[in-house]
Structures are given as structure tokens and as C-alpha cells.
Amino acid sequence: MQTEREAVKTRARRWANALRDISDPLEDLPAVKKAVRGLLEVCKNEENLDDAAAEGAVGVVVPLLKKLNGGDMQAQEQPTTSGVEELERDICFILGLLAIKVEHQSAICEAGALPTLVSMIRRYAARNDVNLSGVPAQTCRRTSDAITNLAHENNSIKNKVRQEGGIPPLVSLLHSVDPKVQRAVAGSLRTLAFKNDENKNIIVDLGSLPLLIQMLRSDDTTIHYEAVGVIGNLVHSSAPIKRRVLEEGALQPVINLLSSSCTDSQREAALLLGQFATAAEGDYKHKIVQRGAVPPLIDMLGNDDNQLREMAAFALGRLAQNTDNQAGIVAQGGLSPLLDLLETCQSNLQHNAAFALYGLSDNEDNLLEFVREGAVQRINECELVVQASRDCVNKLMKRLQDKLGLRILGQILYVMQSSQPSGKQRIAIALSQLTTKEQPSGAQLRLMFLEKKGLDILLEMVQDPHQPADMQKQAAKSLYRLAESCGAADRASVDDIAPQDPNLTILGAHMVNNPQTSDVTFVVEGRPFHAHRVQLLNSSEIFKTMFDGHYREKDASTIPIPNIRWEVFEKMMYCCYTGGKVHVPPELAQELLEVSDQYMLESLKHLCEQTITEQLAPDNVSAAFDLAENYNALELSKQCALYCLREHSDVAVLKSGTGTGKVSTAGYSILLQKLAPRLKEAITDAINAKADAMVS
């Protein structure tokens, strides 16, 4: 049995052969009609087109079309034989279907179809009959469709249509009252104008614009869709044509199409308005908004059609290059749906949304809405697909930071203080995420986070066991950002904490436990450890009191050291003898921290803090904080708190205790309740230091 494809090829071969066998089609029109209709039925299924072409469909129907007309030039004349025009219609239908596939376009043209098709279009234009109907209208439409499909994305064929004189009759046929004819010739002009400047200029110079603008107002969605498409292709990359289109009065009917029931027309209208908005003359950005374009464009942002949303964002992005428009778009509700687009995973939607938001951010008055509506957080959380979008968002955030001047900051802080708790939280989070090391100033940081209690709001959020997980995470992230910006997250160096006096004696590592010139011996775990009073006196106040005060150790030659292991004591001595140039291994860090506190060795304490900080993990950070608090290790306390902010997700999951990866806001908040005082102290001190440094 034949497969389905074999059956298709058999039918195509049968009808093609039948046409080849007919020497004079005009003498046997019924047989020709039957064969053409049979071949047409095969081609109506797009999956069959390659097989039909392979069986010679092009090679039989193009010569047939020429024979029916007695040559290309005679195709301009109305056929005198009954039934010929129906045959022409069906052959053009076949050619239009075959031309859907790029690989068949050249074959059809090489067979000589294009001159005949253009001559046929001339035939109908020459009749000057706007009421073209019946078979002539059908044939005219199928001829135009064939030209459209042949020229689709094929600039060489577009040029040939122009050279054959095909554009003037197509423009003339725009006057037809038959909507199918009008739509078909508009489709041809749309294709011929796409990225072909010579064709564009001819179409415009032939007076097509008034007709096309009239078609924009048609109630027939298929008509105004083709009309807006033609105008869009004419305007693209051509400032002079754009100007002529606007002068002819296209603006309002295009705006009206934003409310069309046809989403394709809406999309084309939005694209065209975006192009109009870039017109160098006439302040069309302002005019487009004045005439009511913004509300429907904003509505389109929420449509299910992604192409429609993309074009709406494109248009709004171009309109947002005007200061008044920027405020108007936000005031009419454009901010939130643009953020929704930014949060999609589709690069085109993201990029157009990012560009529009960047434009909106240029108006200082919009900063309050960006902050109040949580836009800053949402922008920072977006995972952007392409680098261009990331660059645009980075510029957007920098612009928002630059806009945070005293006037608008005063408004934001007023709203923060007068808002409900959720509003206060959103604003505090946004303000913290707008901070950097460079800006705002120390005085502004003090105003925002200390005087107006922004820091307290964020701290309350991370300590509240009833806080939603996403808000708790944002608060933790924001606190860490603030700590980085004000300098609280900076790690202090040993020299910062325990600066060395260059006049003090440093004997060096080779003198550790060296009996040479030793004048005191410690007994550690029953073993002697030789030391030098002059070095120890310079190392800490405890040793100075021990050897220079009224304690018995002052004159003792041996001093017992209880409760300290030998290797811990040895590390402590190396720290004293080298001025803090000693490695603290993780396994000794806790014991050395205790010893450093006991003997007031600040350089050793900080070395221990550094080692423990580097080993912090969700399962030990709480114990490390307790250790720091027990031994007055303030830097370690701060680093534990910062770790919990930076690694919120991992710490919160561990605190859930379920082992399922579920976040526990309650467990995290309990931990932060313990850490918050140190965190507040560190950030407060850093902000005040930054503000005071400006004054001095």
C-alpha cells in the first residue's frame, strides 16, 4: 500500500502530467480546469508543497498562465474566452501557496511568472473600477497575494516588482471598495516597502498615504491591520516619510487602533507610535500622550500576548524620554506592569521594560513611587537574560541613587513615617538598597536610618517571627547592603585594633622559649617555658601589672600557668614576641580567643576573630556569637551578625530544623533577636563616624 506521502506525490504527478499533455489549453478548458483544481487541492496543504514542486508544479503552471494570456504584455488585456479568468485565479492561488516557502520563490521567478503577474495587476488597475467584484476581484486578489508571497523577505524580487512597474497599479487598487482586494494589495505594498527604500519612496510619492490613513479608520480589522502595517514599514528608518505620514494626519487614527479588537493591529499601532515618538520635529512624544495613548498602552502590558506586551513597552519607553510623560505614565499606573515584564524570563520583554523604567527614573518626582511601590527591590531581584538589559538596569539604579537629593528625600521620609507598617518596611528596604559607599552622604544616612528610624524598621523585620519569608529575606539583604555602604561591614585589620608602637621591643620568634637571657619561667602542663620580662611588659597590661605591680609574680622566677594547654600558650607567646605576626589555626582559635581576653592581647584576639570568621557556617554561627560575647570579641560579634544577614537563606533553612530545605522565619528571627543589638551598634557607629567625618 502507498504511504500518505507517496499518495500525495502520485496525485501531484498525475495533475502535472495532465497539464503537460494539453497542447492548447484554450481548446480543452474543462480538462485544464480539472487538472489545475486537482493540483490546487494538493498545494492547499503546506506539508505537500515540496512534493508538488518536486513533481514539476512550477514548470507547468507558469507556462500555462502565460499561454492563457498569449504572453506577458497581453495579460494586461481582459480575457475574452469564458472561464480563462477563473483559471488565472486558481493558478495564481497555486503560485502564492508555493511561494510561501523561500526555496520556491526563485524557481517561480526564474520560470518567468513575475512579469505576467505584474501585467495582470495592471489589467485590473487600468479598469479604474473601484467596484471590482466577482471573479475579476478574486483573480486580482490572488494575483496580489502571489506577488506578496514571492517578495516576502526577498529584496531581489522586491526590486524586480518595482522594475516591472508593479507598484503603481497596486497603489491604484487601494481605492477598491472590495475589502478583500484592498487588503490584498495593501499586503503587497507592505511587503514591498519592508526594508526597501526605493520602493518606500515610490509608494509614498504615488499618493498612497491619504488612502492608507483612511483605511486606518476602517471598522474591518483586517483592513486597518494591513494599513497600519504598510505605514509602519514605510516609516521604519525613514525620518522624511515619518514626517509626511504625521503631516497627513495619521497620529490620531493610529492611537485609536490601540483599542482595536485585533491584537495584531494593536501591536502594529504600538510599534508605530514608538517610531512616531522619535520624530525630531513637532514634540510628538507629548502629543501622543495628550491624545490618550498611555492608558491603552498600559492595559496592553497586562495582555497574554507577549508580542503585544513587548510593543507596548517599546512605545512607553520612547514616550518616557519626555519629562512630563515620565510622571504621567507612573501616575496612570504604568510602573507595576513594567516591573512585571522585567520579571519575566524573556529577553525582549525584559529589555523593553528596562528601557522604559530607565526613562521613568529620570523624573525626580517618580523616585517616591519607585520607593513606595517596592520597585527598587523588584528590580534588584530580577534575573536578567542579556547583558544589554543588565547594563540598562545598572544605569537605572545609578540614576535613582543620583536623584536621592534633599527635596525628594524629605518627601520619602515623610511618607515612610506616616505609612502603615508594610509601607514603612518597603520604603526602608528601598532606601537601604539605594545606598552605596559613595552615596548618599553620611549626613543623609544618619537622617534616613538613625533620626527617621529606618534602621530600627529593618531590624524589627528580621526579628519578627511572623514576618513573611520574602520580606524577612529582603530586610536581611537590605541591612547587609546598608552595612557595606556605611562601612560597618568592613573588616578591621590587626593594626586598626591593636596598633604597634614602633618604640616597643620586639624580640622576634627565635627568642620564644629561649633560655638565653630569660629572666622568668612559666610552668605550663608541668613543663618550663622560658620568657623575657621586657617583652611581656610591652605586650599587655596584664603582664605589665603582673611584673611591675604589687603581685607576687613580680619577683617570682617561676610562675605556674593553670588551665592553658602548652600549644595554646606557645602560640600566645609567639604573638607577643612577633608583634602579632602569627598564624592562628582553626583548631586553636577558640582557646586562643579565651586566652587573648584573659591576658588583654588585642592583636591575638583579632587574629582569632579573623580565623573564626572565616570558618562561620549556618550550624556554628550562633555558638560563635556566644563565644564572642563571652570574651568581648566585638569584631567577631559583628561578623556573626553580618554573616546571618548575608547568608539568610542557608541560616533560615537550618533554623527550620526540618531537613526539608524549608525556610523558618521564626527560627531565624530568634537568632537575630540575639544578634540585633550588636548589629545596631556597629551600623550606628559607622553611620555616625561617616557623618562626623564630613563635618570635620
UniProtKB/TrEMBL annotation:
<feature type="repeat" description="ARM">
    <location>
        <begin position="453"/>
        <end position="483"/>
    </location>
</feature>
<feature type="repeat" description="ARM">
    <location>
        <begin position="165"/>
        <end position="207"/>
    </location>
</feature>
<feature type="repeat" description="ARM">
    <location>
        <begin position="333"/>
        <end position="375"/>
    </location>
</feature>
<dbReference type="InterPro" id="IPR011989">
    <property type="entry name" value="ARM-like"/>
</dbReference>
<comment type="pathway">
    <text>Protein modification; protein ubiquitination.</text>
</comment>
<feature type="repeat" description="ARM">
    <location>
        <begin position="207"/>
        <end position="249"/>
    </location>
</feature>
<dbReference type="InterPro" id="IPR000225">
    <property type="entry name" value="Armadillo"/>
</dbReference>
<dbReference type="Pfam" id="PF25598">
    <property type="entry name" value="ARM_PUB"/>
</dbReference>
<feature type="domain" description="BTB">
    <location>
        <begin position="518"/>
        <end position="579"/>
    </location>
</feature>
<dbReference type="InterPro" id="IPR044282">
    <property type="entry name" value="ABAP1/ARIA"/>
</dbReference>
<dbReference type="InterPro" id="IPR016024">
    <property type="entry name" value="ARM-type_fold"/>
</dbReference>
<dbReference type="Pfam" id="PF00651">
    <property type="entry name" value="BTB"/>
</dbReference>
<dbReference type="InterPro" id="IPR058678">
    <property type="entry name" value="ARM_PUB"/>
</dbReference>
<dbReference type="InterPro" id="IPR000210">
    <property type="entry name" value="BTB/POZ_dom"/>
</dbReference>
<dbReference type="InterPro" id="IPR011333">
    <property type="entry name" value="SKP1/BTB/POZ_sf"/>
</dbReference>
<protein>
    <submittedName>
        <fullName>ARM REPEAT PROTEIN INTERACTING WITH ABF2-like isoform A</fullName>
    </submittedName>
</protein>
<feature type="repeat" description="ARM">
    <location>
        <begin position="292"/>
        <end position="334"/>
    </location>
</feature>
